[in-house]
Amino acid sequence: MLVYNIKKIEMKKINYILILLAIFSVAFVSCKKFLEKEPIGKTGKITLFETVNGAQMANIGSYNLMLGYYKSYFGMYGEIASDNLIQGSKASVMLPQFNFQGIPGDDALAVGNIWSSIYAVINNVNNILEAVPELKSKFPAETKTLDSIYGQALVMRALGHFDLSRVYAQPYNYTADASHLGIPVLLKTPSPGQTVPRNTMKETYDQIIADLKASLPFLQQYANHTTQFSISYHAALALLSRVYLYKGDWEQSITYANLVINDSGYQLATAANYKSVFINNTTSETSPKTETIFKLTNSGFKNSDISVFSILSDISIAQYTPSAKLLSIFDADDIRSGSNAMFNRPATGNNAGKLITAKYVDGSASTANPSAIQIIRLSELYLNRAEANWNLQKYPEAAEDLRIISQRAHPTVNITITYNSTADLYRQIANERNRELCFEDHRFFDLVRRKESLQRGTDCNSSVCSLTYPNNKFVLPIPTKELEANKAMIQNPGYQ
Amino acid sequence: MKHFLLGKYPGTYMSFNRNTLLVMRLTIFLLIAGSLAVQASGYAQKVTLSVRNAGVESVCLDIKKQSGFFFLYDAAVLKKSGTVSLELKNIDLTEALKQLTLGRSLEYKIIDKTVIISEIKSNNANQFAEITVKGTVKSKEAPGQPDLPLPGVIVTIKGTKRSVFTAQDGSFTIQTPVNAVLVFNMIGYGTKEVTVTDNKPIDVVLLQTASDLQEVIITAYGTSEKKENQIGSAFQVTSNDLQRKPSDRIDKILEGIVPGLQYEVQGGTASSPRPRYQTRIRGEASFGASNEPLWVVDGIPLNTGNETNQILGVNTSISPLTYINPNDIESVVVLKDATATSIYGADGSNGVILITTKKGKEGKNTFNYGFRTGINILNNNHFNVLNADEYRELYTESYKNNTSLVASNFPNLGNTNTDWYDVFFRNGITTQHDLSFSGGNKNTRYYISGGYYDEKPIMIANQIQRFSTRINVDQKINKSIDLFFKLGASYNLNKMFDPGNSYYINRPIDSPFNSDGSSVLAFYNKLANAINNDNQQKANAVQGNIGGKVKIFPGLSFTTTNGIDYRSIKENIYSSKYAFSDHNEGNAVFAKTRNFNWDSQQRLNYEKTYKQHEFSALLGAEARSEDRKSNSISGTGYKSDYIRDPELGTRIIQTTSGEEKTGVSYYGQLNYTFANKYSLLGSFRNDANSDFGSDVKWASFTSIGAAWTISNEKFWNINQIDFAKLKISYGTNGNSRVGAYKSKGIYSFSDTYAYNGQVGAVMSVGENPLLSWETTYIINGGLSLGLFKRISMEVEFYRNTTKGLLNDVDVTRTTGFTGIIQNIGSVRNSGIELTLNTQNIIRKDFEWRTKFNIAHNSNKILNLYNDNTKVLDKTIREVGYDSKTFYLVRWAGVDPRDGAPLWYDANGNLTREFDLNNRVKVGTSTPDFFGGMTNTFQYKSFSLSALLIYNVGGYAFSDLQRDAESDGRNLVANNQSTNLLDRWKEAGDLSNIPKPVLGENANNARNSTRFLHKKTSLRLQNVSLNYSLPKQFVKRISLERASVYLQADNVGFWVPYSTDPNRNDYRNSFNPYPQPIVLSFGLNVSL
Q1: A208, B19, B81, B650: most buried by Cβ count inside 10 Å?
Q2: Which residue in A3, A14, A21, A24 has the most chain B C-beta atoms within 10 A of its own C-beta, making it the best mutation to test that interface?
């Protein structure tokens, strides 16, 4: 019956059907391609990493995100939680951290922001690290560029993990074998819905050190020409010195400090050009470079409301100002002291009469002349080495590094280091470290790392003026949102 | 009964083979079943007979020889019939058989190539005297309309199988014994019996039963279902139901007519004259994806905006549904269950609304003109605010109540008295012209229309204009090819001015004008914006499709449909130097957005009716693409207010955006009906879509359903129930409408992501390669009844379980994101719907008909991400509860001692402290039941119809009242609700409004049950009175038809409690933006 009827179909009709079926099949021929669509002004992850250019842009984007967390809550936490600051009349930002009242529910505040903004960096660099090996095999001619990106990404991942561990985990030496809670160490971005447990602090540091060391061969080929605005071979070395100091591995800290200090490519700033290290947002391409090993530039951006620039400086109302305790450790001749270059005392405006740090903005920050954030500079390595040598009971060596830093700050005085006891030397090193690195997000982390208690000064206007080590308050809680979404997460003790 | 087979070997019993046995069995079955088999016609075999007094059997043999047809009969019966004389020359076989059996109690049937001759069984064997009866059958039309001839009615002599059909003019002729009873039967009209007494003509008028069984419901992709055997849940609204509703948009007209459909303003905002509206069918399930049904115009999906009906690329979202002229619409079908929607796959789970535009009819060239004009008047349900004296009094009292304020600083409140409603609202005017001509011949049919809609809404400086046209052409090329072309285009001009909320929060003591007549330049004076600013959108919208149908062989056809949905919107905004917001500068914005969507469908449809088996099948494929590109340029800083060109601003910002989305699908459907009693329907669809994760690109959906028309069973003999049908279906469909590119892991590049002067790329949307569509599992069942021919009742129940909800849920921050869209959680919507159509009174000159529907839906969250309860602004999502459950602190009134506000704490104790920890679950916004009722009265040429919409249960939160009943908190800057006139004044006062304290009482106006209303209400939405002009008069002025009508919209609003007319309750915040009463006059003529 069917056959019979089909026979009746005219040839003409068959032609029509063939044409229609042809149209039909053409429409579906490139089905797979047809279903892949890219948004405009944006691109899918896979497409971005199909070119070297894309990997470069992802690298730039990662720096952008790192700048984001360094100039925001994280960049202030090490100061606000410490004994360096008192609150000004209009303080609102980070009051929970100033008063040690941060709660897990503070998702939009420092507790949640530091956590998620640093993991955003780790996600972005992990994407780079995942993509670069394939790109290298696709574009062998671009190996050098890709190696550089790869090395930088490894250092950013290490720094991200290190910064997270400083905020959310007790210091490395909190337990003898560092078996206490660290932070989730991520070499690959977890998929949504995946549970991510915390690693121990030992595992955390092992990965940080592994990443930094792994970056060295990739970065070394660029040792002589990378700007201070991005991660160089020496930045990786310098960070290793810091990480080993935090870990209490004194020999290694000294080894890596030496590698930078002894490198002719870098020199300490002189007393004369000391201030310009902080004020001039330029970078010297010529060797030797002065002082800065790695800094993040804010070039092209306005100062946001919640940033280290506006909270600690004279741009608006300084919400926090230096404590009497901090000011008391400077002597009058110190070029970093209140009467000299590194502090302002505005005569007019909101902060009239108060001392304000000049490390970020010397009252003249603008889009054209933005401030930079010092991540690591040469002076720190001298102080790292001093502290490590002290711990190895090499007191004269320790005193010598201390002298170098102090002498630079006192160009008109001849400095000799004298100490009544080794403990006195230790205190002097700690004070010098604070004089040198105050407002650069070190103080609180240094106190905790050195297992010291927090003792704020006589002008303390926080609800908490002292905290003894060890203390649950020395770390921030894991944000509630993280605990809700990630059932493998464990809250820090004292915040349950 | 002995049967003889006259075959190849006459008389040989042994020759029965399998086939003939089958034929016999079938024949016997048919005879015994006694069903009214249609007499065969169209057998073109011609026979020539010339016999005198021959036996009937011998004539049969003769015919057999000539025609090649087999004969089947009882020889004894034929013998009993005596002899026959015939002189026939080259006449049809059927005619010959008719002549042969005429006047002999014999009847014949032709099945395949077999003629069966049998005896007519009569209940009174003695009555052999037969007469010829003629007559006509007509159907009753509306009062004032003549009855129309009804062809195809089966006229049967009761107790026999003798029957005839009525002809095209309704006439019939039948041989019948005297005193026999004629039974008139027609699907959709029921049966009627008339006793034959003599051979006078019998004229019968049949009335369509309320069940309207003749209706054929258009379903997906060129398929349809007969109402008699319908399995799916598809509710059809015809152009008659849409008539004389004064809306510019089709979605609004469906409210109250379609059971289970809710049409609501989105978000409850009180501050836009152009709010977004949403249509919901059987509740809503999704948290993150669209809950809007899929709108399909002539088979091509219509883009109605993104997942929240937002039109991307412009500042004001105007629904594309307003770009379609409702007068061009022939029917709207709302598909709800799985068998109806599975075939729309990953876009089907919110229901599908099919819009079919008008077509020309063969042989009838008509010309129609319709005109309507009306005024829109601000109705008295708007939100009431204080007048200047009341404001000053409240201010003074609140000032005194604030002990921290010094009496000597009391400001001068002046003596201005401004009614800001008067400032911003006016009487609007709507005018509409519609012209159409349609018709056609055997080969070409056309429908062409032009429409003009012009509305000046009640808000000043607003205007809506639509110039629309539609051209629908159907062309038959030859016997097997039909082509069609459909094109709807419109140019839409929207002038806008948005006063925000200033029409009710502006203080009555402020004037829009200075004493010199110039405008006050202040943030609140939006009147200056209305005078000086421009804001308009010009939209070109085209929906069209072209295609054809090729009949490959009888029953099988190939159809191609290729359509576009195109929209280009230009938006010009200028904010003047002389208005407050950009004073001294001016700001001009020019935005342009273009959507181009195409959709191409190729399908094979097969239809076959074999005896009582009706079979249809569909197999199709579809490819589609959506593409949007938008750009805008914004300029600020002008020397002169006349420049208004964004490119000439001193500071210019340009932005671009866009997205593309593609999909391909394959689908199929099988439908089988046996004997109009048992129906089965199955369908499937496979969808692929560029939005989903690479791991899960293909989705499959299937459904199956069955219906049993019990009243078509032989055993059914309940006369009171003329129709009964049971149906059930089960299947899945999906929801993929979550917005473009959500699965991919998106990197964005812009200046924001720069570092050290170089542009960087930052991952802005987290990756979820597992992202998939939501799947809804739908069970739908129903019972349809026709009662007393006057009542049609349809009950449906459903249970829609949506799994894998698309939801932007919190993820571990270690992903670098706070939320990534995932398939998490499930929600169940279940409910029951009832539709009742009744013919209450049908008289010659008067009719009263009612259409009533009621629906209940309950919503329950079955599953959430990690089962974490999530508190949103005023609601909570918790497993086991409605997803729209309000979570609020309970208001406990006012302490009569000192006028302080009181709340309940979580344990139900009174407290004077407002604490968010005291929030409890307090009811949902889901109503207990809702629906509508249309009553139509017709008296001669007058017809009156009224639509009532009701809602029982459920709560609504009024943001309006929260902000305007702040007990002094917002009083300094804002006007307040008149409810504050009933405030507490002195100790002992029993009031629900606390003591007002200027600038204080911060907690009073925080979210609490104080501002929660019960939604129970009844609205008289529409009343219209139509008068058809007398035929004679109309003819005299060379017209075919003419009618005039009056109508009113938004007429009444009742709540089951009494509130002072000058106070605010649910009525005043129901549709927060003030609604107009629309009074119109219209006229329709055709020739």
Answers
A1: A208
A2: A24
C-alpha dist (Å) from residue A250 to A48, A436, A451? 42, 21, 16
CB contact under 8 A, A484 and B658: no
Query: What angle separates helix A378-391 from helix A233-247, to the nearest 10 degrees?
Result: 30
Question: And the tokens for B557?
Answer: 């056809």
Query: Contact, A228 vs A294, CB < 8 A?
Result: yes
In a domain, A320, yes or no: no
Residue type at position B597: N
| Per-residue confidence (pLDDT) for residue B8, from 0 to 100 | 35
Mean pLDDT per 10-residue section of chain B, whose length is 1087 residues:
37 41 44 38 65 80 79 76 78 79 76 76 55 86 79 84 84 84 82 81 83 80 85 88 78 91 80 87 90 93 88 89 93 92 89 93 88 91 93 94 90 92 94 93 93 94 95 93 95 93 92 90 90 93 94 91 95 90 87 94 92 91 91 88 87 82 90 93 90 74 94 87 93 85 80 85 87 91 91 95 88 88 91 94 90 95 86 91 95 93 93 92 94 94 94 92 90 93 92 92 90 93 92 87 92 89 88 89 91
Q: Specify if A213 maps to a domain.
A: yes
Interchain contact A106–B (C-beta under 8 A): no
- Which stretch of DSSP H or E encloses residue B93? helix B93-101
CB contact under 8 A, A24 and B621: yes
CA dihedral B87, B90, B94, B98 (to 10 degrees): -10
Q: Please name the amino acid found at residue A305.
A: D
**Within a domain: A343:** no
Phi then psi for residue B1021, to 5 deg, are -80, -40
Cβ neighbours of residue B927 closer than 8 Å, sequence gap 6 or more: B951, B952, B953, B954, B1015
Residue range of the domain that includes A196? 1-220+466-496
**CATH number for the domain that contains residue A48:** 1.25.40.390
How many Å lie between the alpha carbon of B569 and the closest alpha carbon of chain A? 19
Interface test with A, best of B755, B763, B820 (most A CBs within 10 A): B755
Integer angstrom CA distances of residue A358 from A339, A363, A457, B1040: 12, 8, 22, 91
Burial B964-1003 (b: 16+ CB within 10 A, else e): bbbbbbbbeebbbbbbbbebbeeeeeeeebbbbbbbbbeb
pLDDT at site A283: 66
Residues of A in contact with B747 (CB under 8 A): 42-45, 48, 54, 57-58, 61
Report how many Cβ contacts below 8 Å link chain A to chain B.
Answer: 228
Say yes or no: B695 contacts chain A, CB-CB below 8 A: no
Q: How many helices (H) and strands (E) does chain A have?
A: 20, 11
- Across the interface, do A230 and B756 touch by the CB < 8 Å criterion? yes
Q: How many domains does chain A contain in total?
A: 1
What integer pLDDT is reported at residue B696 of this predicted model?
64
Q: A35 and B688 in contact by Cβ < 8 A?
A: yes
Tens of pLDDT, residue by residue over A53-99, are 999 999 999 999 999 999 999 999 999 999 999 998 788 899 999 99
In this structure, which amino acid lies at residue A292?
Answer: T
Q: Which residues of B touch A476 (CB under 8 A)?
A: none
Whether residue A407 is contained in a domain is answered as: no
Number of C-beta neighbours around residue B412 at 10 A: 6
CB of B133 within 8 Å of a chain A CB? The answer is: no
- The minimal CB distance from B810 to the residues A2, A189, A484 is found for A484
A194 in contact with B at a CB cutoff of 8 Å?
Answer: yes
Q: Quick check: B145 contacting A, CB < 8 Å?
A: no
The DSSP H or E segment spanning B746 is strand B744-755
CB contact (8 A) between residue A120 and residue B816: yes
- List B558's β-bridge partners, or say none: B550, B604
Asked if A41's CB is within 8 angstroms of B750's CB, the reply is: yes
Nearest to B873 by CA among B268, B425, B403, B362: B268
